[in-house]
Structure formats: C-alpha cells, structure tokens
Design goal:
With 221 residues, the protein is mainly α. The chain has seven helices and two strands. It binds zinc ion (ZN).
C-alpha cells in the first residue's frame, strides 16, 4: 500500500513523485535513500523535506548528511570550533581577572603582600561585566582573524606593533616570574611602565601597506 502511494503521489511544490524524492539522501533530517523523512522529534513526515525535494529536482544526491561539527557546551548550547576557541580564551582571561575582583583580590595601587587574600581588589561587578564584553568581542575578532591568517596577515601583523619592551613575552620564564609576584600581591617593581604609557617599541619591519583607516595608533593610551 505505502509502496504504491510512494511511487505515485506527487510531492508538494515539485513535479516529482514521493518515490523519486526518496531515492536520495536528505540533508535536512539525514534520511538515507529509501527512508522517509522524519521530524526533529522522530515522527515520519509524509511530505519529504524541501531540501531533499530540491536536490532531487536538481538531479543530485548530496550523499549522507555531514555530522554537525559543532561542540555541545556544558549548558547544552552548540558552538562552532571558532566559538569554542573564543570562549576558552575569553573565559580564561575573565577567570584570571578575578584576582583583581572578588575573593582573594589584590589592588596593584594598594598591594598587601602580608595578606593578599584579604585585599578587596578594585574591579566592581559592573566593571567586570563591561570588561568581559570587550574581552569576548576582541578575542572573538582575533580568533576569527587567526582562522584565516593569509587573508588577515596585515591586520594580524599590525597588532604586533603593540609589543613593547616592558611586556614579558608569552611563554617566557620572565612572564611566569611576574605572574607569580602578582599572585603573591607583590607589585610595582622598580622601573615599571604602565601598560597605557607609550614606551620604546621593538624594532619591527613596518608592514608593506598602511593599516586600514580608523585603526588605532600603536602605543596610544
Ligand atoms: Zn528529510
């Protein structure tokens, strides 16, 4: 009975029989050739998915539906790999900033090496929220650029002009030592240059072309 119906019944919107449409894979629900389309809750759909009909109309079988490469987070939402990278970096930065906010916070303007865990910090809840919006936005832009370094070479390279001599390089023993000191509430070493003050940049070759209009000047406050 259903055989007969599948071979004869025309699908909605196309001059195709249901049987013809069922000959190919469905990119919407993942139904294999010969199988009927299903709703997201697993119920049989009498009318195949539009995508499947369109593919059959075009005379192509796109093959098995690719499994979603998205990653399901602990909160149940799905993220692309680019989003996962942005989350990991921005949340790591956020968690690290907690040392200046909330429990165990220290204030670089008023460090208390005697008892760093008792200091109150200097970032309020609302300031943390504002900072984190900017961090997530910036990290996601940077991750997106790094996904395609060839296309974004100029902007990526231009960012490196913000490297200053007083900045301990990522992954260096120098940086580890500076971080340990901060954690212990020891700050303001002699000769410290604030991060917002222009200092002598490293000698880097200039980019071949001018950075795009409106970009910030490196070293600006
Ligand atoms: Zn389907």
């Amino acid at each position: 009975m259903s055989e007969y119906r599948d071979s004869d019944v025309k699908v909605e919107g196309f001059n195709l029989t249901r049987k013809q449409v069922l000959e190919i894979h469905c990119q919407d629900c993942g139904a294999k050739p010969g199988e009927r389309c299903e709703t997201s809750s697993g119920r049989v759909r009498h009318d195949p998915h539009f995508l499947r009909k369109a593919d059959r109309h075009d005379g192509i079988d796109p093959g098995p539906k690719a499994k979603s490469s998205n990653i399901k987070g602990p909160d149940g939402r799905e993220w692309t790999w680019e989003q996962v990278q942005s989350w990991v970096i921005s949340l790591s930065v956020r968690n690290a900033l907690e040392m200046f906010h909330g429990g165990g916070a220290m204030d670089p303007e008023n460090p208390n090496p005697e008892d760093p865990d008792e200091a109150e910090g200097f970032i309020t809840d609302r300031q943390m929220k504002a900072l984190n919006i900017v961090i997530r936005h910036t990290v996601s832009e940077a991750v997106s650029r790094l996904e395609n370094p060839g296309k974004n070479a100029q902007e990526l390279y231009y960012t490196l002009f913000y490297i200053n001599k007083y900045m301990e390089p990522p992954g260096s023993a120098e940086l580890e030592a500076a971080y340990e000191k901060i954690k212990n509430g020891e700050f303001d070493p002699p000769g410290f240059i604030p991060d917002c003050t222009r200092s002598e940049p490293l000698e880097l070759a200039p980019p071949t072309q001018k950075p795009r209009q409106g970009a910030e000047t490196p070293g600006g406050a």
